[in-house]
Amino acid sequence: MGINLVGQASKKEVQNKRLTSVLKRTSFIVLAVYFVALAFVFGVKVLFSRKDASLVLEGQNLAKQIKVLSASETLLNTVKNRTALAGKIIDNSPQAPEKLLVEVISMLPIGAKVIQVDAQPDNFNVLIETPDSKTLTQIFSAITASQFTSIELSSLNLTDTGVYNASLNIR
User: Fold this and answer.
1) Residues 6+ apart with CB under 8 A from 163
2) Distance CA 156, CA 36 (A)
3) Where are the transmembrane segments (predicted)?
């Protein structure tokens, strides 16, 4: 058996001091971890609040742009509708007699001649002279394949000289 110089009471004090020391170190580490986590959470909150503020500002700017552009969009839709209506009016209006004559003349094969033109507001009458029936057939083919909606053969005559005269009413 050995001699105990410290005594029984001092063993408990040593254990208490060790326990106190361990508790102090542990509480300090826990407190440090808590402060680091708190700083991280605060940093994330600041980051998200700044991002939120910038997004709100950007949303307000976009709303202003939308208001400005909606007026332009309304104006563009009005222009689009009016040009569509103007296009319908132009499509429904009769063509000028000069344009019709130019189109008919452009379809004539070699040897065919326009003898007479009678232009009325609602109809266009053309008298064409051809040297033979082949040329006359070519004219009929070209005119029926064209854009004209109504073509009427008013008269077809064979003269004593062998020339064909065809009167066409075009609308």
Assistant:
1) 129, 130, 131
2) 106
3) 28-48
